[in-house]
Amino acid sequence: MLRTLPLLMALSLLCGAQEKKERDLKYEKDKPAAAAKSEVSIPRSYALIVGVANYKNLPEKAQLQFSERDAEAIYSILISPEGGNFHIENVHKLTGTKATLANVRNELENWLPAVAKDDDRVVIYFAGHGFVYDGKAYLAPYDLEPGNIAGTGYPMETLGKVIGAKIKAKWKVLLTDSCHSGAITPDADAERINKSLQDLDRSLFSLTASRANERSFESKDWGGGHGIFTYYVVKGLEGAADESHDGIVTADELGEYVRRNVREATKGQQNPTSERASYDPNMLLAYIPSGAAPGEAPAPKFGSLVFEANREGVEVFVDDKSVGVIIKGTPLKLPGLTPGVHRIKGVHMGFEPDGPREETVYPGQESTVTLKLWIPRRRPRAATDAFDKGYEQYIRGAYQKAAGFFLSALKEDANYSQSALFLARSYRDLLNDEEAEKYFKRAIAIDPDYIEARASYGSMLLAKGALDEALRQFNAVLQRDANHAMALYLSAQTLLLKELFPASIEAARKAMQIEPENAQPRFWLGEGLRLSGKYAEAIEAYNGYLERSRFDFKMAGQLNYYIVGYMTGLVGKRKRIGQVDVGKELRSMAYFGICNCQYKLGDFDAAIANCQRALTYDKTDPYAHYVLGLAYFARAKKANNLEPLAAARLHFRAIVASDPDLPEAENARKNIALIDTLAR
Q1: CA 634, CA 654: separation in Å to the nearest integer?
Q2: Residue 83 gets which letter from DSSP?
Q3: What are 471-516's pLDDT values in tens digits?
Q4: Is residue 441 one of the residues assigned to a domain?
Q5: What CATH number is associated with residue 649?
Q6: Residue 297: exposed, middle, or buried by beta-carbon count in 10 A (0-12, 13-18, 19+)?
Q7: Residue 88 sits in which domain range?
Q8: Residue 541: how many CA atoms within 13 Å on its side-chain side?
Q9: Among the listed ranges 185-189, 355-359, 537-541, which one has the minimum average pLDDT value?
């Protein structure tokens, strides 16, 4: 005999789903990096990066050019394994319209104090304007109002209190590239801004762009467009500041390197400042194990190379490291290079590279290097024939046969980057990650500007769970092409798996702007919104995906698509392309997402309908069964009618049968027991 619902209501907790121009103003502790000669301990590290170029309320003449580009450069070097060694999820970036006063305050006063501990390292970087009002200095967020600086700027005094008292860390670093334009900030105010920065906290390494009564410059002449201060900070963290050649860039080394080079480059007009007595001079700011060479004498002075090329889009490499791209015929100036011989190379997809060859940097001198890429890459007929046969097999899904042809093409032409890429994809689709990674890296080594290879390599890293390295590849793609939609929506997917939901949502939205009719960004936007608790917006995004998606597995294969799914938790699913109809799987996930959101919004009937749609694509999906059970359970409770409990029990049993080890399966067992009790 069925009981009435008071008992059901009392025990309903068992049903809970488990969601897991001029400028003004996780290596974790238990995972130290390996060192070349001795153990190097890299503390757990957190960073906030803020960059504003175009201000909401400032006149055109007060806008900046390169502050946001500077912030991106700092972000890239901090997350690099040969640089800051920060875990990507521990680096928060606010640029452009995101750098509002509210967001800056939240990151500084809530996030950093909540996460940083006594033995950690914290870096705060700001590029943008600074102002003085009523004798007090302020950093300018995106939404600063010139008529209300005290109310809309971020006070230096508050910054000092936050860094000194609220943020707990062994090493604290503040890097500020803020302009002191006389047209905006009088010299006396600039002096007060600099003094405020230098006096913030005695335990802080504070390196500012210039000293009192000076201006801080930005120009396309430094690395293709940077503030000169940030340009040298990045180069220093890349290893140029490592005068001891032990693979470690310390605070003292970075400070000396930046001061010397900025002073020389501006002929003494700009002098970065730091108070030597206020910080640990051996503070580890970057670790570059490949640069460790104890015993070499430091170069006494630096020189410059200026690169020009005969075509647009040539990527320049110095000592095997990408240093920038020559765009629109504008030379790429690289000051701050150590004197001596350097390996240089210019690359452009489809042409034989210029180099590698040697160029000499002379102390205190600027030398021009002309890169000429005239010769289109020509392939032996045997190589192209083998590639064509391999491609034909690849699109049919015959990956093993395809791999054989691509290998033959590479034997005929060792520099056939396209063949290396498709060989990597073939091995990837055969789930042979070791060989796939080998040939992805080979394709990139042959053509470093081969962004399709980088994006595909990133997709494989994403699929195997190497999320940080995947994001580095996508970041490299986006530095070369900021509007690369695939890199953006794959970044959205990766950020989602790292539970960095706001960043994931932002990447998905940008991909949607670039390709409005592409379904994929809308799917990942829906996932990010759902996992952020924005259920109504998520439903709209999922529906947008469903309206635009009409895929079969062959098309998905051509897109080199991996399914990395997660439902109530973050549960990965990796399947070989061709083993699954990718379109059906994604539609199942989209309907599940809508169902889950509707359940959360209390629309149980609609949730039931959409979870049932999800099951028409994947009848064994445990998560769809689980939420269906919850929705039937909630319908029974809401209607004070136990009849829906039979359907709830059916779906709870399905999840137990499908995957008995899931946490949701344990909840399902408890709910089955409760339903059986109510049915007696």
Answers
A1: 18
A2: B
A3: 999 988 998 888 898 899 999 999 999 989 999 999 999 999 988 8
A4: no
A5: 1.25.40.10
A6: exposed
A7: 22-291
A8: 25
A9: 185-189
User: What CATH number does residue 341 fall under?
Assistant: 2.60.40.1120
* Tokens (6 digits) for 418: 């396209």
Question: Rounded CA gap, 53 and 70, in Å?
Answer: 10
Distance CA(91)–CA(535), nearest Å, equals 27
Task: Say if residue 163 is in the same domain as residue 244.
Answer: yes
Please list the residues that pair with 351 across neighbouring strands.
Answer: 376
Distance CA 394, CA 459 (A): 18
271 burial via Cβ count (<10 Å: 0-12, 13-18, 19+)? middle
Closest listed residue to residue 634, CA positions, set 661, 605, 659, 594: 605
In this structure, the strands spanning 204-208 and 171-179 are parallel
How far from each other are the two terminal CA atoms of the chain, in whole angstroms? 5
Instruction: Provide the number of structural domains found in the chain.
Output: 3
pLDDT of residue 214: 67
Q: Which two tokens stand for residue 87?
A: 């875990």
Domain contains 43 = yes
- The tens digit of pLDDT for each residue in 87-103 reads 898 999 999 999 999 99
Does residue 247 share a domain with residue 309?
no
In angstroms, the CA 631 to CA 640 distance is: 14
Taking a C-beta distance cutoff of 8 angstroms, is the pair 133, 167 a contact? Answer: no
| Residue type at 53 in one-letter notation | A
- The Cα 312–Cα 327 span in angstroms is 5
Confidence of residue 600 (pLDDT cuts 50, 70, 90): very high
Task: List the strands of the sheet with 332-337, edge to edge.
Answer: 332-337, 303-309, 366-371
415: nearest Cα among 317, 349, 332: 349
Residues 38 and 117 in one domain: yes
How do beta strands 340-347 and 354-361 pair? antiparallel
Tell me 273's DSSP state.
B
Whole-angstrom distance, CA of residue 130 vs CA of residue 115: 27
Using the structure block, give the residue that is written with the tokens 């997660």: 566
Tens of pLDDT, residues 302-360: 788 889 888 888 889 888 888 888 877 678 888 888 887 788 888 888 887 887 777 87
In a domain, 520, yes or no: no
